[in-house]
Write a structure and sequence with these properties.
This protein has 172 residues and is of the alpha+beta class. It has 3 helices and 9 strands, in the order ββααβββββββα. The protein folds into 2 domains: 53 residues, no CATH class; 100 residues, no CATH class. 17% of the residues lie in helices and 34% in strands. A hairpin with a 2-residue loop joins strand 1 and strand 2.
Length: 172
């Protein structure tokens, strides 16, 4: 095939297509279907990208980023807090995030968002103040109790840090 300005010229491409497709699909060998996903007996994709989904296969993101998709980076900057003891009556105490975290989102069954006033504490766990911001709740399913519960919650008073995490979640 000829190359024209780095692309296939239309004449050579038309000739190639006419040669291969004139009487239907001439050669159905595996070389033409290398990108076709394989399935097992249960119908799940064997070479899937994320939880049986192949949505990232044609993604513009580089392969190295797609491989780490289930992990969300949360920067331990000022205005980022977490709690592993969420209280349903609004009395959850959020502690500051120290350092950077990678959270494996695959561990959770559901993610929800909340905006409002929350209690924040210092590194020792003592109440510091009430602050307004956004929270991200990571839910898990309890087989024993047969219901969802909030296993981990992040609270953001820094809107830019919150938007960065939401953008990362959008890549999933």
């Amino acid at each position: 095939m000829e190359l024209s300005s780095g692309l296939f010229s239309s004449d050579s491409l038309d000739g190639f297509l006419q040669q291969k497709w004139k009487d239907g699909l001439v050669d159905a060998s595996s070389t033409y279907f290398t990108n076709k996903r394989k399935r097992d007996d249960s119908g799940q994709a064997i070479n899937s990208v994320h939880n049986g989904s192949t949505e990232g296969r044609n993604s513009p993101l580089p392969e190295s980023i797609r491989r780490t998709r289930p992990f969300i980076h949360i920067s331990g900057q000022k205005g980022v807090y977490f709690s592993e003891r969420w209280e349903p009556n609004g009395s959850t105490l959020y502690l500051p995030v120290n350092g950077s975290l990678l959270t494996n989102i695959d561990k959770y069954d559901q993610i929800s968002f909340e905006q409002g006033l929350f209690f924040i504490g210092d590194a020792s766990g003592a109440f510091q103040q009430k602050a307004e911001g956004q929270a991200i709740h990571c839910w898990r399913y309890s087989e024993q109790e047969r219901k969802l519960f909030i296993a981990l919650s992040y609270f953001f008073t820094n809107i830019q840090a919150f938007q960065d995490v939401v953008t990362s979640l959008g890549c999933l």
